[in-house]
Write a structure and sequence with these properties.
Length: 119
């Protein structure tokens, strides 16, 4: 993105060490590269009564963190670029959930189809 002249901020849904568990080793390397090009990086707080112990494993508690970071991103922007493989899984905090939230507030969205695992 930086090569195109776009500045970007990274907002993490949970401590980086826990977040990185959700990605393959190749994706972790790509993520680290993207972090280096970001203007800033920050982590949202734990949602409601969440604790680090509750979000360590795949659970609704972890999904709440993803939902909250998605909503925070929607709330902080005027326009959004949504990349999606088009698969609908109805997961809390997933792309569909965040797009539905953005639609409530009439956010301008540019949807770019992509295949999972391809950037």
């Amino acid at each position: 993105m930086a090569e195109l002249g776009f500045g970007y901020e990274v907002i993490l849904p949970m401590p980086k060490s826990l977040y990185m568990r959700d990605f393959s080793s190749q994706s972790q390397l790509e993520f680290e590269k993207l972090l280096k090009g970001a203007k800033s990086e920050r982590e949202i707080g734990l949602y409601a009564a969440n604790t680090v112990e509750l979000i360590e494993n795949e659970s609704n508690y972890r999904s709440f963190q993803y939902r909250q970071v998605g909503r925070e991103i929607v709330d902080s922007c005027d326009e959004m670029i949504i990349m999606s493989d088009g698969l609908v899984n109805h997961k809390m905090g997933g792309t569909e959930d965040i797009v539905n939230y953005a639609n409530i507030y009439d956010k301008i969205m540019y949807k770019i189809p992509c295949q999972r695992g391809k950037v």
